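Write out the 3D structure for:
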Amino acid sequence: MKTITVQNLVDKFHLEVIAGKERLDSRIESDDIHRPGLEFTGYLDYFPKERVQILGRQEITYLHSLPEDERDKRIGEVVAMAPPCFIISRGQAGLDYFTLYCERYQIPLLRTELKTTSFISRLNSYLERVLAPEEVLHAVCMNILGVGIILRGSSGIGKSEVALALIERGHRLVSDDIVLVKKIGAETLIGTHNVNNRELLQLRGIGFVDVTRLYGSGAYQEETTINLDIFLTHWEDYAKTELLGIEEQTTHLLDVAVPQIDIPVRPGRNIAALIEVACKNWRLKAQGYDALETFERRITEEN
C-alpha cells in the first residue's frame, strides 16, 4: 500500500506546524478526508482515525462555545484516537487547548490560511493522485486529439518510431518506454512518466532526444486520461483475425476495462495515420456513432 508522511503535506501546502513536530513522519494511507463534528459531541463509534482530520470555522466555533471542562474532555477523546494529523483552516487562532492535547499525544497539529472548502478540494486531489493504485507498463503513452492512448507491442516493433511520427503530426508525448498508470476513483486511469524519462524519447540508432527542445512545448504533456490501449502486432500474427472489427476487445488495467485495438505492422503501412483514425473513431463511438452499425443497417435494409 502506498503511503506519504505528514511532512509531505507540510511541504506541499506550506502548512504551519503548531504542535507534534516530533511526529511529522507519521504515515498517511487513506486518500479520504474527515471533518470531525459528531465526535466532539462524544460519539466516537466509527470514527475514521486513519484519515487526515480537517477543522474549519464551524468545528472551531463549536469547540469555543463549549464549557471548558466539557471542551477539554471532547478534544482529549478525539486526539487520543491518534489520527495522522489535524489541520486547522482559515488561519484560526485561540487553539491553546487543542495544542495542549496534541503535544500530550504527539499528534501533528497544522494550520493553513486557506478557506476550508478550497483547502479540502486541493488536499483531496493531491491525496487521490499520490496514493492512487498504480501499475508500470513497458509502453508509450500519448495524447492524440484529446484521446489518451497506451501504445504497446513486442520489443523492437517500432513503438518509439511511431511516437516520433505522431509528434511530427502535432500530437503530444506523455511517456516513452516506461509508463506509470494510476487509478483515480473507480473508473479513471491516468498515464504519466516516471520523472526520469520526462520529455525524453529513445530512438534506436540515435539515442535519447528531448521532444520539447526539438518540437516545442506543445509536443509534450505531463499526463493524460487513458482511453485506448493500442497494440502493435506483426502482420503475420494478425493474419488469422477477422477484418471488420465486429468483436470489440478490451484489456484490463488496475481492474478497469479499456478498449483495445490491434494494429498489424508491416513495411509501407502508415501506422501513425492509422492510430489517428483509431482515436477519431473512438471519439465518434463515445458520441454515439458506430460505423459498423451503419454498415450492418444498410445490409439489413438491402435484404
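The chain has a mean pLDDT of 93.
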